[in-house]
Each structure stands twice: as structure tokens, then as C-alpha cells.
Amino acid sequence: xxxxxxxxxxxxxxxxxxxxxxxxxxxxxxxxxxxxxxxxxxxxxxxxxxxxxxxxxxxxxxxxxxxxxxxxxxxxxxxxxxxxxxxxxxxxxxxxxxxxxxxxxxxxxxxxxxxxxxxxxxxxxxxxxxxxxxxxxxxxxxxxxxxxxxxxxxxxxxxxxxxxxxxxxxxxxxxxxxxxxxxxxxxxxxxxxxxxxxxxxxxxxxxxxxxxxxxxxxxxxxxxxxxxxxxxxxxxxxxxxxxxxxxxxxxxxxxxxxxxxxxxxxxxxxxxxxxxxxxxxxxxxxxxxxxxxxxxxxxxxxxxxxxxxxxxxxxxxxxxxxxxxxxxxxxxxxxxxxxxxxxxxxxxxxxxxxxxxxxxxxxxxxxxxxxxxxxxxxxxxxxxxxxxxxxxxxxxxxxxxxxxxxxxxxxxxxxxxxxxxxxxxxxxxxxxxxxxxxxxxxxxxxxxxxxxxxxxxxx
Length: 459
Known about the structure:
The chain is of the alpha/beta class. The chain has 2 domains: about 15-205, P-loop containing nucleotide triphosphate hydrolases (Rossmann fold); about 215-375, P-loop containing nucleotide triphosphate hydrolases (Rossmann fold, 3-Layer(aba) Sandwich). About 40% of the residues lie in helices and about 15% in strands. The protein has a 7-stranded parallel sheet with strand order 3-4-2-5-6-1-7, with helices on both faces. Helix 2 (about 30-40) runs parallel beside helix 3, helix 3 (about 55-65) crosses helix 4 (about 80-95) and helix 6 (about 130-140) crosses helix 8. It is elongated and about 125 Å long. It comes from Paenibacillus crassostreae.
């Protein structure tokens, strides 16, 4: 059945109206599949790229399943990074406000004392990072006996960050008949192993390979020398002129280099580091969201879980190491069906990586070049005249008409006779002799008394 409205999915009118405020009127494919399964309290493993609406796919039914009168934790959402966790918190507060659901963020890097104080307000939904939640579960500060649903968002990233053990401990501390919902852009072996251990007859929701990246994205790549990458990036930013753009580099040491070069080239740029403290990271992201600068340079680790509203351009200054990382980078733009552009700057030796991504992701990544400040397809270069040949002068066969304001024709001007060659040679010799005589007189007069200088030559 083709579901075309949230009403068909059983979403209450209050939530539908709130969705409409943010121009979300039709459920995305992943929402149409995940929402019914979660409402039926089935375990779910959803294979979905970021930017396809997967957060609301699990969040809306989770909020619907919370009893606001019950003063205990009922739902738990685990995210790999602080930024993604806080994004989920904002969405939860937005759509759970009318029903009176209380939400609490438990993330690493924040004050534990303040989090414990907020736990006394009896939140029904906890959103946080694996390490901090496990810590508070083990110290019995977070009571898990009424938690009936656990969501792990971006489960593959959670495992890549080494938090698989934390997730397993959190799951085992909950009710035996708890519901598990895992979502990820890619499904690794570790994810599959955890599913087989912890889930009971899970509903497997997969997205076709051609939908691995958001459908509203355009993918292009540019070939250049490594030393020319800063200038290519500058020209691309000038051409596309995005309000905000995210630039990915592979090595942490290169982040500051790219940041400095782009600022030197006149494009406002700041950097985001994976090892920065919470205050520094939040400060950079807040300025970026407010449009205080145009380019944010980051590594894959630093940009995990980022959701920047209005981000229309992602640039791979360095090509990602594999198609999984390409999917995650591309997922920072073109979210929820919106348009976006993903550009990759590669050297000639790196073009095989782009071809590999095209094949594995079933996503066309087109080659483009810069010509006269514009991005065009190869072969569409603006023609230029390399040499200029002056056209031959045409002789008129008809006599020119004279008028009052026109210059006399050549035929009406008297032609003076040309002197003969002999006369010309004699004149030249005379001139040469006169000049030699004058030079001799000047030479002899040097140093002579004034009365002698003016003495006329002998006749």
C-alpha cells in the first residue's frame, strides 16, 4: 500500500500540525515503513541514509508510546555523538511538548551534577551518548526497570567509536521484553551480530542501493594537482556561493592548514576538531549556524552527527576512505528531500576512488571542470580565438562618390615627382660631410679661449 499521509500512519493531529509548520506534509519512504513497525512494538533494523527522515521515523512513535502521567523513564535513545544527541533532544521537545513529555539529555562532557539534578524532575525520555548513560546506569542514577523501548541511532558509528560494550550493558539492564530499534546508513558485521543476539524476529527495513544517498543530491568531482586544491576550492565556493558549506579533510593536521589558506584567500573559514572540548565545539557550531562564517573545515570524526540547517554544499577536499564515509559526508546536506550538492576534489591518481563509489553506491558522480569561472561538463568549453587573422581589404570596382564633407579621392591629389637615386646619394654625402666638419670644429674648440672659439674658419 502506498502511504501518502501521516494520518494513514496513525500519527495524531497535533503532531501532524506541528510537522506542517516545518513543511513536512508527506512521510518519506523510511518513515512509511518504520513508523508502523515501531507502533506495533516490533524490533526493527532499518538501513537508511541520514537526511531521509529516519529521526522522525522512530521518534514520532516513541513519543506516542509515552505515558506523561508516569513519573519514570520509559524510552531511551542512544546516539554516537553529543551533536546528534542534542539534535534529537530538540526534535523530541518540539513534537512532544503538547503531550507534556519531559526530555533529558545525558551526554559526555556536560556537568554530571546538573544532569543528576534534572533526573529528579522525572523525565520520561532519555537521549544521550553511550558512555554517560552506562555510567549513570551502573551507579543506579538512571532507573531502567520501566524502560520498554531502546533506540540506537547511527549504530555503525557507535561501534566505530568503540562503544559496543556500553550499548550491550545498557540493553541488558532494561526490561526483558523491551523493544529494540537500530538505525544506520550502513550495516556492519558488529551491528548484525548484536541484532542476532539481542533482537527477536526483527523487521528488516532496507533502502535500495540507489537510495543510499539522499535523492535530492547532485554529485560531481574535479581533477587537479594537489598543490592547486586550495585555489580550486576557492573558485568552487565563488561559483556556487553557498550560505554555508562543509569541507572534509582526512587528516586532523590538515584542518588548520586548509582553514588558514581559505581565510588568506578571502573566504571566512573556521575549523571543527574531534578532540575539542564541548564548549569550543558548541561555540564553533553556533557561529556556523548563525552564518558568522561561510566554510566549516572538519574531519570525519569531528563532523559525526552534525545536522546544520540550510547546509547546501559539502566538499570533499580529500576523497573519503571508502563508500561508507562518502555516504556519511553526503548525508550532511540534502536532508529530508531538500536539494544539495556534493563536490569531490581529487588528483588524477585518485579518480579510481570516485569510480568505485559510483559503482558501489549506484550513484552517478559526474566529472566537471572550471572554465572562465563557470562549472561545466568536459567538452563544453567556451571557444576562444587563439590567433586573429585580419581580413583582406576589398578593392572597390566603382568610383567613390564625392561630397562636401568627404576627403578628396586619391586621383584628385597631385603627385609630387620622386627624386632620382643619384640625387639622393649626393644629398646624403653632402649631409654626412657637413656633419663631420662640424664635429671636427667642436673637437678643436674644446679648451680654447673664448675669442678663439668664435674665430671664423679660414677661407
